[in-house]
């Protein structure tokens, strides 16, 4: 019975860590969605994805 209680405590600690990570991820996604929903002129930094050169040209044109 004592061995099982140790496992239950370890699982509870792991669940707490995972829950905290999900809260952190939710906050980060909220920030991302706010930036994406804002108008393009209010975005100070463009979002670049590797291999998508069109985004880089668009951002360069905005700077000029």
What this model shows, in words?
The chain has 64 residues and is mainly α. The protein is built from 2 helices and no strands. It starts with a helix and ends with a helix. The relative contact order is 0.07. The model has no long low-confidence stretch (mean pLDDT 77).
User: How many β-strand runs?
Assistant: 0
Sheet having the most strands: none
**β-strand amount:** under 5%
* Low-pLDDT windows of residues: none
Order of helices and strands: HH
- Rounded to an integer in angstroms, the radius of gyration calculated over CA atoms is 21 Å
In one word, what is the shape?
A: rod-shaped
Structural category: mainly alpha
Q: CA-to-CA gap between the ends?
A: 71 Å
The number of distinct helices, counting runs of at least 4 residues, comes to 2
Oligomer: single chain
- Work out the helicity level: over 70%
Kindly state the mean pLDDT as a whole number? 77
Short description:
With 64 residues, this protein is an all-alpha fold. The protein has two helices and no strands. It is rod-shaped.
What are the salient characteristics of this protein?
rod-shaped, 2 helices, mainly alpha, 73% helix, 64 residues, single chain
Question: What are the SSEs and their pairings?
Answer:
Blueprint lengths: L1 H36 L15 H11 L1
């Amino acid at each position: 019975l004592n061995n099982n209680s140790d496992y239950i405590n370890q699982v509870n600690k792991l669940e707490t860590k995972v829950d905290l990570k999900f809260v952190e991820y939710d906050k980060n996604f909220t920030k991302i969605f706010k930036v994406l929903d804002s108008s393009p002129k209010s975005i100070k930094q463009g979002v670049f994805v590797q291999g998508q050169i069109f985004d880089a040209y668009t951002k360069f044109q905005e700077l000029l």
